[in-house]
Amino acid sequence: MENNFLKIAAELNVKPTQVAATVELLDGGATVPFISRYRKEVTGSLDEVQIAAVRDRIEQLRELDKRRESILASLKEMSKLTPELSAQINAAETMAVLEDIYLPYRPKRRTRATIAKEKGLEPLADKLFAQEKFDIEAFAASFISEEKGVKTLEEALAGARDIIAEKINEDQTARARMRDLFEKQGKFVAKVIAGKENEGIKYKDYFDWTEDIAKAPSHRILALRRAEKEMIISLESTPEEDAAVELLESLFVKGTNKAAEQVKLAVKDGYKRLLAPSMETEIRMTSKRKADEEAIRVFADNLRQLLMAAPLGQKNVLALDPAFRTGCKVVCLDKQGKLLHNDVIYPHEPQREVAKAGALIKKLCEQYQIEAIAIGNGTASRETENFVKSLNIKGVLVVMVNESGASVYSASEVARNEFADYDVTVRGAVSIGRRLVDPLAELVKIDPKAIGVGQYQHDVDQSLLKNGLDDVVMSCVNAVGVELNTASKELLMYVSGLGESLAKNIVEYRNSNGAFKSRNELKKVSRLGEKAFEQAAGFLRIRNAVNPLDASAVHPESYHIVEQMAKDLKCTVEDLMKNDTLRSQINLNKYVTDKVGLPTLQDILKELAKPGRDPREQFEVFAFDDSVHTMEDLKVGMKLPGIVTNVTDFGAFVDIGVHQDGLVHISQISEKRIKHPSEALKVSQKVMVTVTEVDIPRKRIALSMRENPFDVKKPEGNNNKMQSPKPQAQKEKEESMEDKLAKLKGMWKK
């Protein structure tokens, strides 16, 4: 275990004691948010990212140790375990190396080599492999035996080569060198399957594609694998065969005699039949894992930005889910998001009851003291926005809201339980309104995969994806804090230490006994013990509680410290929280103990200054260009405001208010070199973009954030250029695009 701590410490550039302390806390049931926020002295102030990395790496190393023990036990049972072999196994640092060591001993089905050994050909194989000069024909002829099934000289030599081929395949050095070759020189080679050209038109770029595996980006690896899975392309993942065979010959061929010639034949056969398939499987798994990790990282970053989007705050809201033929669904919500009223209006064709719809909206705004109107950004959204703005309702904000996932929520069990007496259209409108008030509280009710900020999320390892996204949601929920008396079960279940069962018990207790009056009252909730209380309490807020600290992020275990500070200054805790002058007189060093250090005390002081502060940005009203409502309104060269809706490996998608997001390719994001779009953009960011291309039939919009988007020259340091030779079709495609950009440049100048 200590070796694991040293290894992780070296990898993360932290101290072994920090790793050991973190692992002990994790093993004791502590969560990542709790450890990073309330156990800084124990871990040496490791942040959430470092703690999560320790958690994930220790799990990997424990799996490795578990496999190591299994192999040692297996070898011991077979009486094959020697001190040298045991040392090798204990020194193995990766699963691949461990399996390479075990490969020659692993029980296997009958192979060509085992059949050859059964025929008594192993001495011939050993003699050939030694590659000394001898009369091969005469020696091989001595193994011909009708009884053993060796009828000819060639059969004897072929069997011996099978044994040598398997020996080469199981050689640790050969596998390590070959693995390195596949990783560094392996190429993805894709070819369209005959007859699938029309069926797989969306994969046209990959009909004749070659790319270095080491340099292939995540999205392309996943796209190639999807095309292969759909049987549109065939896909190979190997280096040049000559290079691989040459490498093996350098390891095993020792001379130029006839025996060496037999070994050469065995090398080629061993590579093609055994080693290449094995290594290709490995490299495909390795590249897929890396692609998954990158795709999940991008997805997680986007999700974090979406969840942490600025909330409007507690307001009376009227929400509209726009539509043409079926009408716009209208709901009115109070400051806590409670549904007060629902209706339908028909301000658009074919009914077009503009006056009636306008009168109802005005009436509802007055009746329910509406402070903001939320409009979903789906079908008929811009038309509905124009209609609402034409009413000139003073003092009411009109805000377009991203409705991705609202339909998924409206049909979910969560929505059915909450609004059993209402149909999906009403539930969807409620979700839109609540998302404006508090995006985080509403979005936790929706499967992150349905929110629309992922990339190939259905192609990646679903277990890894769920764990990664759950980490993000938990991190965001605990960073913001949760109002105990109004939070839904879905929000509470992401609070550190709770989970679905305790969250449900909290809501049931609240429904039966009324609002919680203190954090300490949590201990009365069924099955919520001391450990869960310790983990959760600091992240739960109670407004207007008897103890003002219950509304802050100060953990109950530290209340006595704040009370002592107030006592020393001869004031109340409430005075301390309201008075900057009083807080400035606190000498933190006075309160340092063997368990509480300056990091925690500094956090407490910051929290006293702004109790329960929300780390999210202040809400800002955003408006699309009023002259643009559909793709038909777009003109090349237009500069428009937009909101980033998704960031991917190859660029970012931006909503410019025409029901179809446009793409800002990575090469059009910045004049400076960027390795990934996330360096410059994040989800929900407001940007100005220039329209560079509009393809209405294909519903594609190309956008740019560069000062001169029509400059054909690549921006400085552009890293999106292919590193491997490109197919002719791809080159022609790029040339036609350059011609197109040149023409657009001329139009722009005119």
Please give a structural write-up.
48% of the residues lie in helices and 11% in strands. It is α/β, with parallel strands linked by helices and 750 residues long. The protein has 4 domains: 2-105, Arc Repressor Mutant, subunit A; 112-300, Tex N-terminal region-like; 317-437, YqgF/RNase H-like domain (Nucleotidyltransferase, domain 5), CATH 3.30.420; 631-749, Nucleic acid-binding proteins (OB fold (Dihydrolipoamide Acetyltransferase, E2P)), CATH 2.40.50.140. Strands 6-5-4-7-8 form a 5-stranded mixed beta sheet, with helices on both faces. The N and C termini lie far apart (71 Å). The model is unreliable at 714-750 (pLDDT under 50).
How does the SSE layout of this entry go?
Elements: H1 2-12, H2 16-27, H3 32-38, H4 40-43, H5 48-77, H6 83-91, H7 95-102, H8 112-118, H9 122-130, H10 136-141, H11 153-169, H12 172-185, E1 187-192, E2 208-212, H13 218-229, E3 233-238, H14 241-252, H15 258-307, E4 317-321, E5 328-333, E6 339-345, H16 354-367, E7 372-376, H17 381-390, E8 397-401, H18 406-410, H19 413-418, H20 424-437, H21 439-443, H22 462-480, E9 482-483, H23 489-492, H24 499-513, H25 530-536, E10 540-541, H26 559-568, H27 573-578, H28 580-584, H29 598-609, E11 639-647, E12 651-655, E13 662-665, E14 686-695, E15 700-704, H30 728-749
Parallel strand pairs: 4-7, 7-8, 9-10, 13-15
Antiparallel strand pairs: 1-2, 1-3, 4-5, 5-6, 11-12, 11-14, 12-13, 14-15
Helix pairs in contact: 1-2, 1-5, 2-5, 8-11, 9-11, 9-15, 11-15, 12-14, 12-15, 13-15, 14-15, 15-22
CATH architecture of the largest domain: Orthogonal Bundle
Lateral arrangement of strands in the main beta sheet: 6-5-4-7-8
Distance between the termini: 71 Å
The CATH H-level superfamily of the largest domain is Tex N-terminal region-like
Average per-residue pLDDT, rounded, comes to 90
Inertia-based shape: globular
Assigned CATH class of the largest domain: Mainly Alpha
How large, in whole angstroms, is the Cα Rg?
33 Å
